[in-house]
Amino acid sequence: MLEQLEQQRTDALAELETVDDSDALHEWYIKYLGKKGAVTLMLRSTGQLPPEERANFGKRANEIKHLLNEAYAQREQAVRQQELAADLESDALDVTLPGRPRTLGGIHPVTQTHREFYTIWADMGFQVFTSRDVETDEYNFQLLNFPPDHPARDMQDSFYTTDDGVILRTHTSPGQIHAMRQLGENGTQPVRVILPGMCYRYEQITARSEVQFTQVEGLAVGRKIRMSDLKGTIAAFAKRMFGQNVSVRFRASYFPFTEPSMEVDVECFLCDAQGCNVCKYTGWLEIAGSGMVHPTVLRNGGYDPTVWSGFAFGMGPERITMLRHGINDIRYFWSNDLRFLEQF
Amino acid sequence: MLVPISWLKDFVEIDIPVELLAERLTLAGLEVAHIHYIGVPQQQVDGVNWPTSDHLVWDREKLVLGAIREIKAHPDADRLVLAMVDYGGDALEQCVTGAPNLFAYKDQGKLETPLWTAFAHEGATVWDGHSDERKLMTLKGRKLRGIYNKSMVCSEKELGISEEHEGIILLDPRDDYVPGTPLQDVLGDVVLDIELTPNLARCFSILGVAREVAALLDKPLREPSYDVVAEGASIQGAVTLEIREPELNPRFTFALLRDTTTQPSPELMQRRLKLVGQRPINNIVDVTNYITFEIGQPLHAYDYDKLVARAAGKAPHIITRLAEAGEALETLDEVKRELDAHNILVCDERGILGLGGVIGGAETEISDATHNVLLEAANWNFINIRRTMQSQKVFTDAGTRFSRGVHPSQAILGVQRGIELMRQTGGGQVAQGIIDEYPLQPETVHVDLPVSEVQRLLGMTFTVETAADILRRLLFDVEIDGDTLHVTVPDHRLDINSDAVIGQADLIEEIARIYGYDKIPSTIIGDDMPPQVGNPDLMLEDATRDLLAKLGLRETINYRFTSPEREALLIPDGMESSLPEGDYVVIRNPISSDKTVLRKTLLANLLETAQVNARFNTRQQLFEIGRVYLKRGDVLPDEVRQLAILLTGPRNASGWMDGNDNALMDFYDVKGVVEGLVAGLHLADVAYCRNDDPASRHTSFHPKRSALFYLGGERAGVFGELHPQVAQRFGLVDAPVLAGVFDLDKLFASVQDRHLVRELPTTPPILQDIAIVVDADVESAKLERVIAQAGGDLLKDIQLFDVYQGDPLPEGRKSLAYHLVYQTNDRTLKDKEVAKVHQRIIKTVQNRVAGAEVRM
Lengths: 344, 856
Ligand SMILES: [Zn+2]
Prior knowledge:
The complex is a heterodimer.
Chain A: H1 2-18, H2 22-32, H3 38-44, H4 51-89, H5 109-123, E1 127-128, E2 134-136, H6 137-140, E3 166-168, H7 174-183, E4 191-200, E5 212-222, H8 227-242, E6 248-255, E7 258-267, E8 284-293, H9 295-300, E9 309-315, H10 317-325, H11 332-335, H12 338-341
Helix pairs in contact in A: 1-4, 3-4, 5-10
Chain B: E1 2-4, H1 5-8, H2 18-27, E2 31-38, E3 63-74, E4 77-86, E5 93-97, E6 110-120, E7 125-127, E8 136-138, E9 142-144, E10 147-149, E11 152-153, H3 156-159, H4 184-187, E12 189-195, H5 206-217, E13 240-243, E14 251-258, H6 267-275, H7 283-295, E15 300-303, H8 304-310, E16 317-322, E17 328-330, E18 336-338, E19 344-347, E20 352-355, E21 359-360, E22 373-379, H9 382-392, H10 397-404, H11 410-426, E23 429-430, E24 435-437, E25 446-450, H12 451-458, H13 464-473, E26 477-481, E27 484-488, H14 500-515, H15 536-550, E28 554-555, E29 561-562, H16 564-568, E30 597-598, H17 603-613, E31 620-630, E32 638-648, H18 667-681, E33 686-690, E34 701-711, E35 714-722, H19 724-729, E36 737-743, H20 744-749, E37 766-775, H21 780-791, E38 795-805, E39 813-822, H22 831-848, E40 853-855
Helix pairs in contact in B: 6-7, 7-11, 9-10, 12-14, 15-18, 21-22
Bound molecules: zinc ion.
C-alpha cells in the first residue's frame, strides 16, 4: 500500500510537470485529488488497513495529499500566468472600427444659449419672467412710448391679427410693463428680471432675418439704478459670456422705451478685433441694445420716475449662438435639420 | 444719409482725420455705415478700424488741376479736338480728346477765361472710362489719328467720382485756382453714409450733422446765410394763402422770383447734389433739392405763370385742406392717385396742386421755359405725412424729412435761402416780402434741470458748469441758477419734451452722449435686491427637456406659424378633428401661404420636420416644448404649453456589427418614453386607457395602437402609433410613426413639490413566478390591480417578464408571466407565509378575472 502510495506521488508529480493548460490541470486534480481521485481514495481506504499500519500510512497519505495540493497550486499559478500572457497576445481588435452607437438626445442650441443666459443673470439676481406672445398694440407699443403712427414704429414691422389692436409681439419689451405691474406692487418694490420669449417681425426669411426669433430682455428697476450700473452689469455679463478679457463699448442709439439708449458692442473674438467679415472689419460685434428706462415707461409700470429709475437691455440668443459657433444662416435654427442639431 | 465732408466744412471746422470723426459720430449715435473716398487716401488712425477701401487714390504728381487755354481742331478727325492744357509746367500740353463739352470752344483761339479741368499726366492711373466693368488703366503715349498723345483731360467716371462719361470735368472758375495743384486738394472728398435713428430727425441735413460735429469737437457752428437781395415789386397781391387745417399744416411761406432764366446749376451745386445721390436737373429744381439736403427744409417750386393762368389771369389763391371723397391727383412721378380723407393737399381755386409736404402735381411743375417762380416752404404734421406716405406708397426726400419731424421755424429760413440761391444761379428779381402764414406756433420748450438729477441717473458727478457747457455746445440756451440749469431748447429741435421729467431725461441723454458714454464709469448695482421668487414653471420645462434628452430625443424648435390646411392633415378622412377647442389666431398680413395662423398643435410642424429629415435619417427621435394659441372668446388667445414627441425608424441606431437587428420602433417604445417622463417628473396617479371610444378618441392616432394618458383622472395627453393615413400624408410611410401630444400645464400641475424616498429593505426578497392565461383583450393593468390587492403588504413588486400568444394556446388567448416579489423591510419571510399569500393571489385572480387560468 505504501509503495503504491509513493508510486502515485511519483506519477502525479511527473504528470503535473506535463500539464500546461487549465483544462488538463483540472483533469489532473480530479484524477488524483478529486472526490474519487487516486490519492483521495487511498486516504479514504486507510480504515481497511491493519490497525498498526494505519497511523503511519494515514500520516504519509496526508503528507502526500498536502504535497500534491501545494504542487497543484504552484502549477495552477504557472498555468494561469501562461494563459494570461497568451490571452493578452491574442485576438487583437481593429480599434479604428466605429463603436456601437448609443442614442444621444440633445437640447436645441437656442435653448442651450438661453440656459447660459439664465445662469449668468441669476448670479446677478435676475430672475426669469415670461409673458405672452400675442399682445395688444397697447402693451407692445403704446405703453413703451411708441405712440400710434410714430416713426419709431418703422423700426419694427408687425404681424397683425384679424382682431383690431391685437398683434404678435415684436420684442419682449411688453414683458417690462407686465413685470413692473405684477412684481412692482404699485411702484413700491424693486424689480430685477430677465424676459425671454419668441418675437415676431414681418420680414422676408433670409440667411440673416427670420419671421420669428427669440429675445432675452433684462430689466432692473430700483431707487438707485444708474447708467453706470447698466455699463458695469452688461460688461460683467459679456465677460462671462465671451471671455474675461473681452472689451465692451457702448454706442449711443435710440429705442423709444429707454433714454439714454445705447448699443453694446464686444470686441470681435473671431478676429481678435483685427477686423473680419463677421464684424464687418470694424473689430466690434453688436450684442445688445440697452438703456435707462424711459420716464414714460416707468410711469406706465406704476413707478414715480423722480424717485425710481431703471435700466433695460435686450439680446438675441440666435445671433450670439451664430457668432459663437460660426453659423452663417439663421434659418438653420427653425429648420431643425438633425445634421445641424446633432452638432450640439 | 450721405454727407460730403467738403460740404460739412462749410459749416464747421474739422481738424481731425475723417476716420476718427466717423468713429466719434458713430459713438454719439450717428452711425456711420460706410465711408466713401473720392481721390484721397484712407488714413489709419490708432484704435479705429474701418474696412479697407479699394477706391482709386489720385496720384498727387500725376493728377492735377489743369487750365485749358485753347481748343484746336484735330487736322484729321472731326470727332476729336486738341486741348491745350496749362498744368503748371513750362509749356502747354496738347491733349487729344473727344469730349463733346469742349466742341463749343473749338477754333476760338486763346480763351479769355480758361476751362478748368482735371489733367492726367502720362503714367497716371485712372478708371477706364470706356469699359463697362470697373477696370483701372495707366496712361501711355500713343498716336491718336496721327497725333501723338500722352496725357488726358478726365471725365468724372475716369476719376471714380460718378458714372458720368459724356464729357470731361469742367469746373466753375475760381480766383484761387492754380494750374498744377494736386487734384486731391481740389476735387478730393470723403462722403460719410450715416444711418439716422428716428430721434435724429434734426440731423437729416448737412447743417444738422454739422451741429452735432460742432458740439462733439467743441467748434463754433457757421450758420449759412439767409439774407435775400429782394429788389423786385412786392409779393403782396401776387398770391394769397389760406390754411384750413393748422394742426396738419402749422406754417406755410411763399417767396416769388420774377424774370429769371431756368438753366443748368453751377458745377459745385451739381457736384454736391451728385455726391448725395441726386440728379441735377435745372437750377430751380436743383436749389429745392440743395436746400432740402443742406438745411433739412424741403421746398417746392411752382411755375407762377401756370398758376396765374389757372386763376384766369388773377392772383392765385392757394388753399391747404384735407382731401374730399373721390378726389384724385396725378403727381410728378406720373402716378394717378385716389386720395384718402387724411391726405393734406395744396390747392388753388381750380383744384389740387400737390400732396402737401410729399410730392407736387405735374401740372404746375417747373420747365425750361419757366420765368417766374413761386417758392413754397411749409411745415406739416409729421404723423399725418407718415400716414400719407404709407397709404399712398410714395416716398420722397421731402416726405421722408417731414415724416420724421421738421421744426416750423425752419420754413422761413428755407424759403429765404432758396429764393436767394435761385436768384444767384438764374438771375431775375426777388419780390420784396414773404407770404408767411403761421397759425400754429409751437411753444418754446424750457426745462429746469438740477444737476443732482444728472448724477442720479448717470452715476457720475457733473459740475453745473460742465453740464451747461455741453448743452451750450448743442446750441441750447442755458442759465445757471445755483445747482440748476434753466435750459431753453433751440428752434431746430423737436425732440426735447416739455414734460418736466421727460425733458430732464432728454437733456441728460444729450449730456451723456456728447460727454461720451465711454467716460461714464462702470459700477455694480448697489440697489436693494428684490424679493427672489424663482420660476418653477420654467424649471419644470427644463427638467422635462433634460429628461427627454436623456431618453435619447432631440429637441426641435419649429415655426409657431402654420395654416389651417396643414393642421387639417392631422384629421383622417371622415373623422372629427381632435385639435384643441378654440379658434385660430389669424394673421392679417401673412408672410406666406403656409404661415397664415398661429398653431393649435405642435404635432403638424413636428411631423413636417420629421418629413424633411426623413431624406437623411431613417431613425428619428424628436420632441418640442412650446406654446399653442387658442382663441376662446377673450381679446387675447389662451397660450397653452404643449409637449410633442415623435419616434420613427429602427429601434437601434445602425452600426456595422448589428446588421441583423433592425426591428422598427412600435407603441411600446413611445410608451417607454412616457414612462420615463412619469418616473422622472414623479407624476402620481397615472393611467393609460384605450383610444378607441368613438365619442372621445383622438382621431390622429391609430385606434388600437395608441393610448390616452390620464393624470389624476383627467386626460392630459395621447400617444402611440399615428393614424396610418396621417403618417402617409406627411410622407412617413417606411416605418410606423410613434408620436405623443401632452398638455404641459396639466402635467406640471401633477408634479409633487417633493417626493419621499422608499426605505431600502435589508432582508432578502422571495421571488415566486406566476403565469396567467386570459382572453387576449384583458389588460395587463387589470391583472396587476387584482394581484396587488390580493397580495397585500407582503407583495412588494409585480414584474411582468413575458407576454405570449400562439401555439399551444388557443386563438384569442394570451399568457402573461410575472415575477412576484415578496418582502418586508424588517424581517425575513417564512416560506409558509409566502405560500399562503401566493395561494390567495391565485384564487383571487381566478375568481375575479373571467376566463383566467393560472399556471405555476
Ligand atoms: Zn472680426
